[in-house]
Structure formats: C-alpha cells, structure tokens
Amino acid sequence: MKLALITDIHANREALEAVLDHAETQGASQQAFLGDFVGYGADPGWVVDTLRERVARGAWAVGGNHDEAVVRGPSPQMHAEARHIIGWTREQLDPAQRDFLAGLPMSRSVEQMLFVHANAHAPAEWGYIDSRGEAMRSLMATRARLVFCGHVHEPRLYYLSTVGKSGDFHPTPGMPIPLLPLRQWLVLPGSTGQPRDGNPAASYAIYDTEAEMLTFHRVPYDHELAADKIRRAGLPLRQADRLLHGH
C-alpha cells in the first residue's frame, strides 16, 4: 500500500487539489490527514467537505490545534492574527462541518504507525517538534515504529536506533528513503497549504508500506490564486504573502 501523508492544509483548496491529484499519479491508495485543515486560508468549507468525503471512504484523519480552536475557541497562546482568522473561519462553516472537526481524534494508531498532529509525548499541548531532542522525546513516548506528525511546516525526518543513536535528515523531494526496520522513525511531511521553508510548492510524503520506503514530494500549484482569495476574503495580507514566498 502507498500511503499519502498530508498535513497542515490550512483551508488552501488549490494546494490540496494539486496534492491529491499528484498522490493519485504516484499510486497512493490510502491517505492520512494529520490535522490543521482550517485556519489562514480562504476555503475552509471546501477543505472540510473534501476531508469528510475522504474519511467516509476510509482515509485516516486526526485533528490539529486550528481545528480545535474553531470548535472550542482560540487558546490564549494564539496570536491576535490567528485568533481573528479562527473567528472568521468559524463563521464560514456550517454545524455539520464544525461537528466533523469536533469529532476528529487527537491521535490514531494503525498497526506499527502512529498518526498525530503535534507530537507523541503530549499531543494535547501542541508542542512543536523543532529539534532532534523533541523528536526523540516523542519517539521514546510510544512503541510505534513509525510516527507521522504535522504542525511543523517544514519537511524533516528523524530516527532513533535500538542502541540509542539518533539522527535527522533534510529530505530531497522525489528521492526514496528506506525506513530501516531496526529504527524508530518520526516523519514530518511538511505543510501542504502553507509551506514555510522558502519553497511555495505544496509539501507532502508517500510511505510505501510493502517496500518500507518514504518519499517526500513538492507539488507546484496556483499559489497566486490561493493568495488572491485570502486578500479578497479580507483576511490578513501576511497570510497571502506567505503563500507567494513560502515562509
């Protein structure tokens, strides 16, 4: 099975459409969505409906902090701009769409895989995996051999060996990486809807469960249209600029 790992869509219809089309051309038959489906972008309703349809057909999904904020209200830690966007997003969603977000689990385990938005050691606290130390903290908190996380908008790969050796990679798009069975792995696919590594192309990854190979992908999309939609919706201009420049 080829599993598409998609996260941090952030209400970006154009990016999600491009990634779903690309994943299909790569032979991905299953999807795992790792949270933050809304927030920042201009198409929250379309994105939520698309996710609902995919989940109804068997895709796996977990919730993110922006999804939770739309349902329960923004946390005090969210900056003013994000809080404003959360309020706008909530107004765009109907009760059924909000109920879908409210029903998303914090994490999901499938065989040797763990899917979670932020991290494995304290998923409800929404801490970022922004260092090797934080990645090891998550890996040591679970028995899962493969941990797939979102939240961080840059693609990255970490591992922990059976003798305690750790490492990390900045992956090269399109280059398959063997996930050696004697290691634990933590995968950050990068953001589909709002990349922040200087590359505006949508980011996601595919895991081949039979070959045990992981491939990161970057998919160009019409980010100018997505940015224009943000401007026309009256959302903060900085969010449009982020799509244009990838940071």
Automatic annotation (TrEMBL):
Residues 1-211 form the Calcineurin-like phosphoesterase domain. It comes from the Bacteria. GO terms for cellular component: cytoplasm. GO terms for molecular function: phosphatase activity. It holds the Pfam family Metallophos_2. CDD domains: MPP_superfamily. Belongs to the metallophosphoesterase superfamily. YfcE family. This is Metallophosphoesterase family protein. It comes from Aquariibacter albus.
